[in-house]
Amino acid sequence: xxxxxxxxxxxxxxxxxxxxxxxxxxxxxxxxxxxxxxxxxxxxxxxxxxxxxxxxxxxxxxxxxxxxxxxxxxxxxxxxxxxxxxxxxxxxxxxxxxxxxxxxxxxxxxxxxxxxxxxxxxxxxxxxxxxxxxxxxxxxxxxxxxxxxxxxxxxxxxxxxxxxxxxxxxxxxxxxxxxxxxxxxxxxxxxxxxxxxxxxxxxxxxxxxxxxxxxxxxxxxxxxxxxxxxxxxxxxxxxxxxxxxxxxxxxxxxxxxxxxxxx
Length: 263
What we know:
- With 263 residues, the protein is an all-beta fold.
- Helices cover 0% and strands 59% of the residues.
C-alpha cells in the first residue's frame, strides 16, 4: 500500500462509515473500501485495522503480475476528540511478474506510512469533512517499494442521502517520486462511495479514478469496487471486498479480507 494502497499500486483499503460516532458508538474504520471515513478514534483509545490477506492480478502486453500480501495493518491512537495519529505497515508481500519465458519475483516487508487525521466539522454537521496529511517512509526492499519518501493530503467528505444512504467523496493529492529518481510528480485521485447499512451489515459500492502526471504515465486509472462489513460486536468488525479495473492501466482485479478492533 501507499500504506493505504495495494501493493499492486492501485487500491486503497479504506472504509466509509457515514458519520463520526461518539466514544460509546460502534467502531468506525477506514476500511473496507478505498474511501476514508471522516471520523477519528476516540481520545485515549487504540484501534487496529488490517488486511488478513490481499491478492491482486493484472495481465496485458504479454505480462502477468500477481501480488499477495499478509497482515497489512494500521495502528491508530486517539489524540483528542477530533484527531488521531495512524501508523501503517505491511508485514509481508510477495510480487511476481510472469513474462512467459521468464519470471521475476520479490518479497519482503512494506513501507511505513504515518498519517494524522483531523476532523474539521462537528459530529452532528450535515456535511462531515476531515483532513489527512500523510508521509510514506521507505522501509520496503527495492521492487516492493521505491526507496523514496513520499506524501500527500486526503480530504474525505461525507453526507447523508435519502433512504439512509451514505455518500463519501475522497479527493486526494500525492507528491510521488519520479521513477528515474529525478524529482517528484503530482498524482491526483478521487472517488464516489455509496454505503447502506442493514442492521450490523453495511454494503458499499464505489467508483475510483486517479491521474498520474508523470511524463511516462499512460494516463488515468479507474476501478469499480464493492465491499461488505459485518459488525460482530460494537468494537469488532470483519469485512471483505473486491476492486475491478476498468482500463488497461489498472490491475484487473484485487480481493481482500480484513478485520478492525478497537481497544
